[in-house]
Write a structure and sequence with these properties.
Elements: E1 5-9, H1 20-23, E2 30-31, E3 34-35, H2 36-46, E4 51-56, H3 71-79, H4 83-86, E5 99-104, H5 111-117, H6 119-122, E6 127-130, E7 134-137, H7 143-154, E8 159-165, E9 175-179, E10 185-193, E11 204-212, H8 215-221, H9 233-242, E12 247-251, E13 257-260, H10 264-277, H11 282-298
The protein binds uridine 5'-triphosphate (UTP).
Length: 299
């Protein structure tokens, strides 16, 4: 089965990034020269997704506008002798052919609720869910999402989740896999939300990418509000697993890494990673780092 639809929730309040997120959606924060969400859409495009349902909020409804062709700007750049800048616009990205649709989450009732808001546009089909504030940088073209879609198909799975290995002292920050084997692709016995290191079943943390059968929407409907009065996606996944759903995990490969804009530390680390990967910025970042280091030594 071809899975060509993704739900990308971008409606969160981003309170950990205030006051920044009063002015700019965290999903639009720059990573080197591009907004975060552009990386997400390009990653999905390369994995075969052709239609993306952006779950936005009334306050963030303009996010989708950043991914429209701007004919007036293109004309201006052509007429003022800057055709090379046209090359850098969203309209020139291969992913610009992505069909973008918007669903509005009117109340921020959590990630599970945001996914449920995409249900009617998903129209009974299996979907990829990709968090709009996380990028998976991958050296391979289709990346982890393509491997997840292939696995979903081959094993007639109901749930496939990407996992990243984290250091044991960080397991209490993430949903953690209870895997049935040590393989890089494994069946999932359970998910444990933010376990303490002493009881964690593994150090494999959920990495912002999922593939779901349409059953996820039934599970979300019967999921009660949990922590913070929110509908937690993890609770719906666990409900499905406990009712016998076929759940698989796929580990990120060597060279693949998840970047998270959710807090200032991880955003700063992400920005530096992408700036160092950009030939236009690499030397600037290195020089600024050296100068800041020597300035501190003289302070
Ligand atoms: P987070 O778990 O980081 O939550 O969302 P948040 O509410 O945005 O941020 P904080 O905790 O207040 O700082 C992960 C992804 O899910 C989306 C977010 O926009 C982000 O891309 N999300 C989260 C929604 O779309 N709706 C929600 O109700 C919650």
């Amino acid at each position: 089965m071809v899975i060509d639809t993704a739900i990308v929730p971008v409606a969160g309040l981003g309170t950990r990034l205030l006051p920044l997120t009063q002015a700019i959606a965290k999903e639009l924060l720059p990573l080197a020269g591009k907004p975060t969400l552009q990386y997400v859409l390009e990653e999905l495009w390369l994995s075969g997704v052709r239609r993306t349902i952006l779950v936005t909020s009334p306050a963030k409804s303009t996010i989708a506008d950043c991914f429209q062709q701007d004919a007036a700007l293109e004309r201006h750049l052509q007429e003022t002798g800057k055709p090379e800048l046209v090359e850098q616009l969203w309209s020139q990205s291969p992913a610009a052919a992505m069909q973008l649709e918007t669903a509005i989450q009117t109340e921020q009732l959590g990630l599970g609720h945001a996914v449920a808001v995409g249900e009617s546009l998903a129209a009974g089909q299996p979907v990829v869910v990709a968090l709009g504030d996380c990028v998976i940088d991958s050296p391979s073209r289709g990346g982890v999402v393509q491997r997840m879609i292939d696995l979903y198909d081959q094993h007639e799975a109901d749930i496939v989740i990407a996992f990243e290995s984290v250091s044991p002292d960080k397991v209490d920050r993430f949903g953690i896999a209870d895997p049935l084997s040590d393989d890089s692709v494994f069946q999932l016995a359970d998910l444990v939300e933010k376990p303490s290191p002493s009881v964690a079943p593994s150090n494999l943390a959920v990495a912002a990418r999922y593939v779901f059968s349409p059953q996820i929407f039934d599970a979300l409907r019967s999921t009660a509000r949990g922590k913070n009065n929110e509908i937690q996606l993890t609770d719906a996944i666990r409900q499905m697993i406990h009712s016998g759903a076929r759940a698989w995990g796929v580990q990120l490969e060597t060279g693949e890494r998840r970047f998270d804009m959710g807090n200032l530390e991880s955003y700063t680390e992400s920005f530096i990673h992408f700036a160092l990967a950009d030939p236009r910025l690499r030397e600037v970042v290195k020089r600024a780092g050296r100068e800041a280091g020597s300035q501190r030594e003289t302070d």
